[in-house]
What does this fold into?
Amino acid sequence: MQCKTERDLASNELMAKIQARQAHVVVIGAGYVGVPLAVELAEAGVKVTAYDKDPRKVDLLNAGESYIEDIPSTQLRSCVSTGLLSGANEAHCLREADVVLVCVPTPLTRSKEPDLSYVEAAISDVVAHQHPGMLVVLESTTYPGTTREVVVPLLTERFELGEDVFVAFSPERVDPGNKVYQTRNTPKVVGGASPACQKVATALYGHVVDRVVPVSSTDAAEMVKLVENTFRAVNVGLVNELAQVSRALRVDIAEVIDAAATKPFGFMPFYPGPGLGGHCIPIDPLYLAWKLRTLNHESRFVALADQVNSGMPRHVARRAMELMSAHGKALRGARVLVAGVAYKRDISDVRESPAIDVIRELTQSGARVEFVDPHVREINEHGVALRGVPEGHVDYGDYDLVVVTTNHSSFDYEEIARRARLVLDTRSTVPGRRAGEDWDHNVAVL
It folds into this structure.
């Protein structure tokens, strides 16, 4: 254990390096969170190493070739050419790190419990190369208490918290494909494990974001991210249920929501769809639910929203069967085209995409399923392996049914409505949609 004077020196040196933009930052995890953050740091004049165990990613980074849609290769190449950004796939790069930002996956196990194995492996790498005067920030979404209960104990076995090691949690707020809000202009929530930790972490993020939002603890910062995405998951679950109710009432839910959204206060529009996708919204609420169960609390809203949203792909398959049957056709043996397999508009990310579950449900019902997506060439997820039909080679009229699952802006919805024999529009995008059992038009909604 170091003496007080040495600790003070390490603390002061770290703060001075951060303020002068001379701290060496290592970002663990070169994915959709880590790469944009690394680029923003480099553009702010901070030396940064993106550490990832995937050598393919590291090679592409060092060549200035971006595999992250929100980061153009020209922007990445500019950062690499200055010498401020580089990639590494060996943990020894942590020896020279003044700051470590952990941006690794936090998936769920098969039993829908938190899987912190990536976080624990990353922190273990840090501990193996730890030295006095380091700031370590966890950005991976997790349950309240993770930083305090898991990260801090590992990092303070040989070092004193707030004196020669500084720990914080700052939830990532990346929205892939968002052209307006990116790393710099998205406010950054920061919770330190101590007041000194908060001060150091806030100083770092002040270089790369326009606004830092300090909160009282790491637990509070962890809870912020879960509240944000639970709010979305619950509201999407609500409108998905209302979509089914509205069909029984012969009302177009999209028309209703659009009209309700004209109210200038007290209402925020959410729209129904085939389910939830992406790494965050389907998963984060279940982290919260798990934590609450450990405290003997039941999260009824979260459980119900998960039940509704998880059931939407099966509901889509049932609607497809109803639509085909109403037109005197069977889904079994029918040729079906799924339009869009990315989990959201105008990106290529298929993680947890409900479209994949829709394809599986349709296939299990006997349909012969193909897909078209301008951003995705092939999928091999959750037991579904398909190569997409090139967008320019699709004739919607060749299919018995077209199911729109992702509302990409490049799709010609007028052509889909005009050419397709039948359309099931899960995104309320195709012209001529119908809500009730009125089958006099070829386009139906959820």
